[in-house]
Structures are given as C-alpha cells and as structure tokens.
TrEMBL record:
The chain crosses the membrane at residues 65-82, 89-108, 114-138, 150-168, 180-199, 204-224, 244-266, 286-304, 324-342, 349-378, 408-430. Belongs to the nucleobase:cation symporter-2 (NCS2) (TC 2.A.40) family. It comes from the Bacteria. NCBIfam families: ncs2 (TIGR00801). The lineage of its organism: Bacteria, Pseudomonadati, Pseudomonadota, Alphaproteobacteria, Hyphomicrobiales. It comes from Bradyrhizobium stylosanthis. PANTHER family: PURINE PERMEASE C1399.01C-RELATED, URIC ACID TRANSPORTER UACT. GO terms for cellular component: plasma membrane. Its main location: membrane. This is Uracil-xanthine permease. It is a multi-pass membrane protein. InterPro entries: NCS2 (IPR006043), Xan_ur_permease (IPR006042).
Length: 439
C-alpha cells in the first residue's frame, strides 16, 4: 500500500476523506467514531504535555505561550502535509542549552533576555526552512550524506552532556532539594518500567506530579523546605490572554542558536522514517513538506514568545501502542492545546512546580537526550572500528560536554555549536577522497 501523492492528491482532494473505521489498525486517512477520536486526541495531549511544559520552564519561557504555539504549530504542520503525516509538534529540548548560553539564564523564574533567545530561534527556523526547500528540490540523499548516523548521534549526545551541569545544579542547593530531585528521578523510572498499560507512556508527567506532591508534603506539611506559594495560582483567572513577547535580533545569539536547525532536521527525518515503518508505507515524499512545516511553526512560535518546536517521540509511542495513526487526532489535540494556552490558571499551576522537582525531571530528560545517541548508533549499526566514526564522535562529545567555546571577533560559538559544526566538518574531512588516498 502506498500513500497518495501528486496526482493521487489531486484526485482525492488536498485532504483525505478520513473513512470511518471502528477496529483494527487505523491508518492516517481513516478515523475512529467521533467520541473515540476526542478521547484519543486527549491522550495525545497528555503524552506531549510533560515535555512541552518542562522545556519552556528550563529556559524561562512562559509555559502557556509554549503550549499555545505547540497547538498552532501542529495545525500548521497538519495543513502543509495535507493531513497525511500523523505528528504533534511540541517544545524542542535541542534549544535549551543554546538559549541558556545566549541569555545567561539563571534557571529560576522568567528569562529576562527571552527576546534575544527568540531572535535566535527565528534564525534557526529560517535556516531550517532553507534546508527544507533544498530537500524539496534535491531530495534527501544529501542530508543523509552530510549527517550520517555517526554524526547525528554525536550531536545529540553532545547536547545532553552539555546540559548535564544545569540539571545537577538544580538539585544541589541543599540535602532536601537533592532528596526531592532523586526521588523524582526514581518515580519516573518506576513508572517507565512498571506502570500498567498506557500509563507507562507518561513517566515524565506522572513523575512531575509525584515529585510535586512529595515536595508539598515535606515542605508545606512538615516544614523541611521552602513551602510552595499558591498565591499566584489562586489569583490567576481561568481565561485570559497569554504574555506574548516579540524577538530581538542579535547576531551572536542567532549564530549560537541557529545550528539547532541541524538537529531538528535529524529529528523530523527520524519521525518520518519511524511512522513510515509503523504504518507499512513510505512517507518520504512528504519529508520536504514536513521539514518546511516544522520550520514555519518554529518561526511563528518565536515571533510570539514560544519555544522552537519539533515532532514528538512521545506521540509516536502512543501511536505504536494504540495502532491508531489517524491524523484527525492531532488536529483535535492541537485545538485543545490552543485552548489551554488561554488559561492563566493552567500556566500558574505549572509555574508553581518546585525547583528540585524540575531538577529531577531535568536529570532524566537531559540524560535521555544523551542516551538517544546510543539508540541512533545501535539501530543504524554504526561501525566504531572505523576511525572516522570513532574520532568524530570522540571530538564532538568532548566539545559538547566541556562546552568548548570559539570566538570569531564579535561572534561566539558555544559547546553545542562547536560540537555540531565540528562533527559535520570533521567527518567530511576524514571520509574525503584525500583522507582515503593518504590511508
């Protein structure tokens, strides 16, 4: 079975007709009964919410705005891919390290330099869009040659390792904070390993809830730590406009943040391949559109104060568990997210999460980013007996973990940028015909 493209799209109309199906595998152009569609869409909202909410908190962004633009971005994606690629666009963790570096964010409360970060995210979105247009024109072969699994894995690992000090610092203020952070880590692990059914797919959000309640018990109830202040939560209205912020464009911040586009390309490419494998049909024809949609969604989000967005593995997990790939679920989930974005009460609840709990979440999430590199290398059978692969990975990991910073006049490239560009350039040099001739 092949997906409708080109003339098939014209014959069927731009969007699928979403034929009703009540059992078995539900393909992207099919749908469940409306009641089940609503429930399944809400399930995707829950799946994305943990990471989509935590990422802006770690950067000092407004979580309401981030959730709002995740919904808007998902609808943009839905329209551009003609409703034929199931995907939710949530906050990208690839931006965290570079945003913190570009803004000097201290890790608590609103980021005072958020506008500078937004300008850099717009720059990343523009670079991402240029790559998307080239893919639409030339195909995907050049991307896979420029960023083979050895390189993409190295860059992903470098991002996770670069963030590690931020996570550790968040739980190191005192013994109580350390205990709460580690307890949160343990709860996430237990849920991921032992929770029944679909609950196992929600370790981050359940771990956050468990850590929150534990902190409230020992701090508010027993006085072991600073109590959670519910004043802002009580005063916040149920409905209201989010706090939008416009970007400020500074060359050094743009130069630092823009390379994240390379990671977004790799994430989206992996998403298209994964969904294609699950549905038993190739979606490669839509890769260019998917990249362009993600880039446009990132630019739109940054112009309003939202985080950069990317396709979400959490939602792939839900699809794998349920065998429901209907794209209508994501249109509904996006609509719910937009509504949540207009609830200050929801945002105040998220902002009340204690710092040690966020630190515990960060330890897991940043570690998972680094560990994802291992999965990339294993699944693609990367040969580390090959010196080109081994040296490229080794240099990228050290540059990222040590935050190797390069300065060119007024421009500064932090550890993430150095690791990204270094891995790409070094690999191309080590695998060039000249290097093989010397060998």
């Amino acid at each position: 079975m092949t997906i409708a493209t080109g003339s098939d799209e014209q014959a069927q109309g731009y969007f699928p007709r979403w034929k009703l199906k009540t059992s078995g595998v539900i393909m992207p152009e099919e749908r469940l009964p409306w009641g089940q569609t609503i429930v399944s869409g809400l399930q995707h909202c829950v799946a994305m919410s943990g990471s989509t909410i935590i990422a802006p908190l770690l950067m000092g962004f407004d979580p309401n705005v981030a959730v709002l633009f995740s919904g808007i971005g998902t609808l943009i994606f839905f329209v551009i891919v003609a409703g034929r690629v199931p995907s939710y666009l949530g906050s990208s963790f690839a931006f965290i390290a570079v945003v913190i570096a570009a803004t000097g964010y201290a890790g608590q409360g609103p980021n005072p330099n958020i506008s500078v970060a937004l300008g850099g995210i717009v720059g990343a979105g523009v670079l991402y869009g240029v790559i998307a247009l080239i893919v639409m024109w030339l195909g995907t072969g050049w991307v896979e040659r420029l960023m083979p699994p050895a390189v993409t894995g190295a860059v992903v690992a470098a991002i996770g390792l670069n963030l590690a000090p931020v996570a550790v610092k968040a739980v190191s203020a005192n013994g109580f904070d350390t205990g709460i952070g580690l307890a949160t880590v343990l709860m996430i692990g237990v849920v991921a390993v032992a929770a029944p059914g679909l609950w196992r797919r929600l370790p981050i959000i359940l771990g956050a809830i468990g850590g929150y309640l534990l902190y409230m018990l020992f701090a508010n109830g027993l006085g072991f730590g600073k109590p959670i202040d519910f004043t802002q939560l009580s005063a916040a209205p149920w409905l209201g406009l989010p706090s939008f912020t416009t970007p400020t464009f500074q060359a050094d911040a743009i130069f630092l943040i823009a390379p994240v586009a390379v990671i977004l390309v790799a994430e989206n490419l992996g998403h298209i391949k994964a969904v294609g494998a699950m549905t038993g049909r190739s979606l490669d024809a839509y890769l260019g559109r998917a990249l362009f949609a993600d880039s446009l969604a990132t630019i739109v989000a940054a112009f309003g104060g939202g985080t950069g967005v990317t396709t979400y593995a959490e939602n792939i997990g839900v699809m794998a568990a349920t065998k429901v790939y209907s794209t209508l679920l994501f249109a509904f989930a996006a609509t719910v997210s937009i509504l949540l974005g207009f609830s200050p009460k929801f945002g105040a609840l998220i902002l009340s999460i204690p710092g040690p709990v966020i630190g515990g979440l960060s330890i897991v999430l940043f570690g998972l980013i680094a560990a994802m590199a291992g999965r990339i290398w294993v699944e693609n059978k990367v040969d580390f007996a090959n010196p080109a692969n081994l040296i490229t990975v080794a240099v990228a990991l050290t540059a990222g973990a040590g935050d190797l910073t390069l300065k060119f006049g007024a421009f500064t490239i932090g550890g993430i940028g150095t690791a990204t560009f270094g891995a790409i350039i070094l690999y191309q040099i080590l695998t060039s015909p000249l290097a093989r001739r010397v060998e």
